[in-house]
Please model this.
Amino acid sequence: MEQLKLCDSDYRFMCVVWEHAPVNSGDLVKLCNEALGWKKSTTYTTIKKLSEKGYIKNEDAIVSVLIEKERVQADESNYFVDRTFEGSLPGFLTAFLGGKKLSSEEADEIRKLIDEYSD
Model:
């Protein structure tokens, strides 16, 4: 399966879409102006580009999601860990924590995740 990656501006745009979809493209122009400071032409260009890439669908002026946020976040996270920490999840967690202590609730939640995703 192809790994999904978005540049920062496309990701910010998709966050607006994910929050409001399905949304009328005219309303999306207003939302992107408010949230991102974008002009109408920028929003319509991005709608066209991300429709062509298969992230969204624009049909009868209604923009809807084709790829869920969680899928993009998972692919982005995997790419980051692979590139920055040579695929080492423990290396990522050590750097992420940076000497901070976890609350007992956070530690319990992480233990549950480890148990759920372990072989």
Observations:
- Residues 59 and 86 are 41 Å apart (CA to CA).
- The first helix runs from residue 8 to 20.
